[in-house]
Amino acid sequence: MEQLMRQSRSQRALGRLLPTLVLIASAIFFAFPLLAMARFAFQNLQVIDLGWNNLFEKWSFSSVTASFSDDFFAEALTLSLKLAVGTALFTLGLLVPTAVWVHLRLPKARVFVEFLTILPYVIPAIALVAGIVVVKPHARWFLNSDYSLIPFYVVLALPFTYRSIDTGLRAIDLKVLVEASRSLGSTWIATLFRVVIPNLRAAIISSTFLTVAVVLGEYTISDVLLKRTFPSFMAQYRQSDPRGGYALAILALLGTTLLFVAIGVLSKSRSTRPQQVSRSQENEILV
Amino acid sequence: MAIVNIPPLGEEGAVAQATAPSHFWRTPIDNIRNKKSLAWFGLVPFFLFLILFLLIPAISVFAQALHDEDGSFGFSAMREAISGQNLDAFIFSLKFSAGAAFVGVIFGGLLAYAAATATRPRWLRNIVSSFSGVAANMGGLPLAFAFLSLLGRQGLGTKILNAFGWDLYAGDFKLGEVSGLITVYSYFNIPLMVLVTLPAIDGLKTSWREACANLGGSAWTYWRRVGLPILAPSLLGGFLLLFANSFSAYATARQLTDNSKIVPLRISFFLGGDISIGEDAVGYSLAAWMIILMGISMAAYWLLRRRAERWSNS
Known about the structure:
The structure holds two protein chains of two kinds. Chain A is an all-alpha fold. Chain A folds into two domains: about 1-60; about 65-280, MetI-like fold, CATH 1.10.3720.10. Chain A contains 14 helices and no strands. In chain A, helix 11 runs antiparallel to helix 14. The longest helix of chain A is centred in the first third of the chain and has 41 residues, at about 1-40. Chain B has a domain at about 95-310: MetI-like (MetI-like fold). Chain B has helices at about 10-20, 30-35, 35-40, 45-65, 75-80, 85-115, 125-135, 140-150, 155-165, 180-200, 205-215, 220-245, 250-255, 265-270, 280-310. Classes of the chains: A mainly alpha, B mainly alpha. At the A-B interface, helix 1, helix 3, helix 4, helix 5 and helix 6 of A face helix 1, helix 2, helix 4, helix 6 and helix 7 of B.
């Protein structure tokens, strides 16, 4: 008996050892690339010359400030921000009415619509842009404009954004809210803007942040179509000044991380609601 | 063992709504619901949008791919896209994508399990799941830059490993080859796997483990007979998702390497255009094959996810 207990205790210790090792190894694997990039961007010292004695020398933000003064920096950032705003508005204008409609009138279409929203995984950005190149001669008036990227970015963000709005709708009693509003004499438009949307605030904000993150990081389409978005600028700037390019990448990462932290905070405050559907709490940014 | 069959969440919700007791008064919603066929018209804007900006480009790719050199309909370009150098590219891409997915499933699954079962410190699980949310979406340029500065020829990690007597570049390691790509893609694959499996691991009930122990089963028996079979659809689905994710990644690969054996890069070289007329159909055929491959993986993923949801909500 005693031997059995001892055995199970040592077994349990072994059982804890493996997860701990996995956690430590993961921490190293995920932290090191970022640390290496930060060092490269902010320390003006070749790796070959690096040693314990000069580890803390020559750190500065000069690489970032230099990249800010590049002629195309402001232009590229402005374009990407405009695209982000446009994509976010387009997404909401298209998806909120569609998702509300599906929940109210066509619950049986829910699985079908959800399936449609993961189609961008089947047709990845590189295949989509191949199609755009084919269509281009027939729609030059549209595709020559930088803003023609907006609908395609809406497509790329679709799996994330639809899911986030859908989750928000599942968490409220939409039918009762709408019936109450309608029977009190409100119009459909007023119901949408004064009842449904305020109740979806958290979902709308998080889907907007997801959109912004997708747009600010999108490179495939803008690279092939030679559009001067922020990621394209970053790639090009790295050719002439690697440290500046890496510094810009760190800034972009910081920005995106802040957006995702905000989404995390928002979805947590939402999950305190009683009717929250549990499956969606963790992975709302997924397929 | 009697297992209660829980219907998948999505359908259950739909059934609940459809069979909700109707009120004795007729609401405006019920009135309109009677015109069932009309309800589909509400989805017209959404369908139109998808047709214009997703389906037409996709169909155009196939239309171009199915052209023979003389412009008539035919499969020669599709055939050429999976022979010779193009076949090498597909094999190379399949190899590193499957490898990256495998590594992602193993370490992502372990990490999710470690985070889900850790009791101390309490914030650990939250940190892992929030960080995964960020890192799973961290493809693209920053990721490529980070690994170039860590494991490039002049990278910090390369230097550190050198100090320990391991010359990374002595063998055939390169960021643009199989081993390098697997390493880099693991950075977003592992967190993605964590996000996919955490709910499934939460679905494993302690009572099952206790039941197994009471019947004399060891930890090994539990995992082999109960835990892994239940997790299998999630793990397999995760593998397919990670595979598709790795196969279609462009931005990261583009910055890491010029290796034209990576199918997305190869497509972009064809699109970029220093090729003779007639050759471009091969580029579109590559894209068409890619869509077919992604379609198969995602369809299987979709089915497996439905299967896995049986256990993840209760």
